[in-house]
Amino acid sequence: MTQTDRRGKTKKSTSLTGFLAATVLSSLFIALWQEFIGQTLGALLGDLLWISAILLLLGSLILLIAHAQRGAPYEPLRLIVRMLPNSPVTGYVLTVVAGLSAAVLIAPLVWPVLSPSCPLPTQLIVVTAADSEAVLREAADVYETERREENGGCRPVDVLVYAAGTTETVRQTLANGWELPANTTEMGAGPPGRSYLVDRSLGARPHYWIPESTVEFLELVPPEDGRVNSNGKLGDAGLDYLGPTRMTPLVWAVPDAFPPDVEPGILPDGPDLEWARPGLRWTSVGRLHGAHQARLLAESGRAAEQVQAEARFLGEEGADSSLALLCRVGKWADTVALVSEAAVYQARSALDSASPDCPEGMRTDLSPRYGPGLPFLDHPLVRVLWEDEEPSDLTAERQEFERFLLDLAEDEDAYAADGVYAGYRSVTGQGRAAEAMAAEHDAAHGPQVSEWAARFDPVQWWEWALQADEAHREASEPATILLAFDRSTSMASVPQQFDAARTAATTIIGDLRAQDRFGLWSYPAGDSGREATAATTLVSTTHRDNLPEELIATVEGLAPTHRPTPLREVIRAGVLALEEDAAPGAMLVVVTDGVRIQDDRGLSQEELDRVLDGTDVRVRIIAVGGGAQQAADQAACEVGILPQLTGHPRVECRDADRGRADESARGVVEEARGGR
């Protein structure tokens, strides 16, 4: 009897020890597996696993106890014991089964207590152009995933990507410690702090800048000896040029119905054909378009026609990206646009071509046409080094990120239809998705793109771009702009409205040249009587050099304080004032939300149309959005009485909501210089 008890105790002790060991080891194994897989077992197999684990644990414990108590007098246990093999292996198997089922239940609870928490990730900040923002965010997601897998499940880096606006904006902010100068016009001392450039809101100081083209880098760091300088200095920032990250050729985006026997080019092919390009002065595509035009004219012995050729593009809307231009081209059936191949691919491949920037939907009937003389966008990686001392963990992540992007530039899988850079090409001109689009639309010369990429010289194109910019200036006429600024209370229904209005006004002022003339009104002048239908003259129309030094401060000090919105009355008064001024090609620019609030009937549309019928003054409305009165699917130019105003051929509207106030403002200034 004593020996049996001793053996029973030995069996119990061995079984308990084995059960605890199996449970602990299994729990640790399952917890580690869950951690590295990144999902719990419950998420993988569902609630059925947990129910099964509980039943299995209870059953195996009962069998284990019965096996350990084979000599016990309890009748229920004897019945169970008869079904179990009388072997030591039975105890071991039951112990392991019980341990595994217990581990499944307790591992998710135990592991978070035992495992160390992940430290906060290091943040890398990348600024880029509007067209590149989405694709770089996708690349950043891939990079973060790879680094997390390499780091045992913890994410060591967070990559923030955002669009920082034009090269001029980047130049100013880099030289100013990544703060917008308070006075962008150099005419006076505006209030301290950042300007109202809300359209390209600046985040934290960037570690990298990825512009559209090396041509933009050369504007900040001019080349020496015909080569790109890999290092430069701008304000408190050092710039290191690390090389291209991907390429995309410029192509002619032509309607599918475009005659196949007409070869697109810079020179006019016919009186019914229009040409369009993004803004010359604030996009790489625009700069390279001008450079191509200058080069083509020079090589054909027609360099003297360069100014006249540039004059054809004065007055175009100032689209600040290829996709924005493709949205505008949707309005003009017989227009050929020079844009990037990647933009055409994205427009044709989009499942939903409508976007906040293009609410009416992108045209999808545009095909690429290639030419051996067209330049490329190479999207260089530029490292920004500030004077502050850099932490060692940031330096390590920088090096990993640079290696990732530069390796991705040569990875063929990145340029497939499901790749990160779908629609782009590698630095050698190879790109599976782009080549498939070219073949699908029977685009001429598509197979030769790789050969052309090898001949692309950014320094030469930068030199041609300088000539184009000079020709553009010579072709420009002095602008006369009277700006009428809406101060009605409806402009403050959302804060972004009035900020966008300030942005439009300060952008126009910042784009003025010495020979340009400018005047500033605000309206209404008051809440009642004649003031409710009149404007206040803040600055009489005068040359730029004679403008008051406090002009920017005046604009930034405006506030929405009056209830009425005498839109028609102010347009009539502004047109008559410019007629009296007798300036050729004068333009009235009205910044408003389009919401008209009147206590009386006011001026009718018919009366205003009669005034517009007898004038050469052009009226351009910059619509900043109707705030609370603007429907989700409604464009800014569709709010209030704006559709009635734009029914007259001398009145046009520019949408300036959704972060496009600066682009719209630049566009009207360009148009004012065109004299059209």
List its traits:
676 residues, alpha/beta, D-Maltodextrin-Binding Protein, domain 2, 6-stranded mixed beta sheet, 22 helices, 17 strands, disordered N terminus, membrane, VWF_A, vWFA_dom_sf
Using the alpha-carbon principal axes, give the shape: globular
* Number of domain units: 4
Mean pLDDT: 80
User: Which stretches of 5+ consecutive residues score pLDDT under 50?
Assistant: 1-9, 33-46, 183-200
Distance between the termini: 116 Å
The CATH architecture of the largest domain can be given as: 3-Layer(aba) Sandwich
- What's the quaternary structure here? single chain
**What about the largest sheet?**
6 strands, mixed
Tally of strands: 17
Please work out how many helical segments DSSP would assign.
22
CATH domain class name of the largest domain: Alpha Beta
Task: Assign a percent range to the helix content.
Answer: 40-55%
Instruction: Report the sheet-strand fraction.
Output: 5-15%
CATH superfamily of the largest domain: von Willebrand factor, type A domain
Tell me the CATH topology of the largest domain: Rossmann fold
Structural features, described:
The chain crosses the membrane at residues 16-36, 48-68, 89-111. Residues 656-676 are annotated as: Disordered. The structure is a single chain. The chain has 676 residues and is α/β, with parallel strands linked by helices. It has four domains: 2-114; 122-246 and 380-415, 3-Layer(aba) Sandwich (D-Maltodextrin-Binding Protein, domain 2), CATH 3.40.190; 259-370 and 452-471, no CATH class; 476-674, von Willebrand factor, type A domain (Rossmann fold), CATH 3.40.50. It contains 22 helices and 17 strands. A six-stranded mixed beta sheet has the order 2-1-3-11-5-4, sandwiched between helices. Helix 6 links the parallel strand 1 and strand 2. Helix 17 (495-510) packs parallel to helix 22. The radius of gyration is 34 Å and the shape is globular. The chain starts with a helix and ends with a helix. The model is unreliable at 1-9, 33-46 and 183-200 (pLDDT under 50).
